[in-house]
Amino acid sequence: MPSAKTDRLLRAGMGLLMVLLVYVIYAAIHERVVVAGDDAPTFTVHTDSGRTISVPDFGGKVLVLNFWASWCPPCVQETPSLSAFAANYANKGVVVLGISVDKDEKAYRGFLQKFQPAFQTVRESTVHEDYGTFMYPETYIIDSRGRVVKKIVEATDWPGAPNRFSDWTDPKLGKYIESLL
Q1: Where does residue 122 rank: exposed (0-12), middle (13-18), buried (19+ CB within 10 A)?
Q2: Fewer CB atoms inside 10 A, N or C side of the chain?
Q3: pLDDT, tens digit, 9 for 90 and up, residues 42-75
Q4: Alpha helices of 39-162 — where are they, by DSSP H?
């Protein structure tokens, strides 16, 4: 039977190990979450249209990087306005890239066929991890130098937006984007 002193030492050691474990988990997660002001993690993808898009080398344009999935209701809801946004800014120095995290290619292709997004798309399973993205939709606005200037998390909008989903046709967002060009 252990003595009271041994029992206290074991408890203190277990407590210390627990604190250390929590710290290591926090540090690992915190290190991988990209926020406004960070340099965008580099990646290169080949879109469904055959275009190659890289960060930070994407032609000096503003990149709107949207992580989404076909099974995500807010993603489905925002797709028409994101398409309108992409069409409106296509010739103004803005590239919209939608990266689907769908594992099921058939679901991904069905989504594209149904919604016909007016922006570049790719089904890719690792880039979102580099950004620390695990809830969808999540969008990063990246300036021409490769710096994240705005992060739009899930279904939360920029201040003052009337809807719980991202309305990419909101004039406030348009003014913000134009300030980056």
Answers
A1: middle
A2: N
A3: 999 998 888 888 876 667 899 999 999 999 998 9
A4: 73-89, 105-115, 127-131
**CA distances to 101, 115, 120, 125 from 104, in Å:** 9, 17, 19, 11
CB burial string 32-57: b at 16+ within 10 A, e below: eebeeebebbebebebbeeeebebbe
For residue 69, give both structure tokens. Answer: 């999935």
**CA gap 12, 30 in Å, rounded:** 27
In angstroms, the CA 150 to CA 169 distance is 16
**What fold does the segment set 34-180 form as a domain?**
Glutaredoxin (3.40.30)
Enumerate the domain spans of the chain. 1-32, 34-180
User: Is the model's pTM score more than 0.85?
Assistant: no
- Planar angle of CA 80, 71, 38, nearest 5 degrees: 75
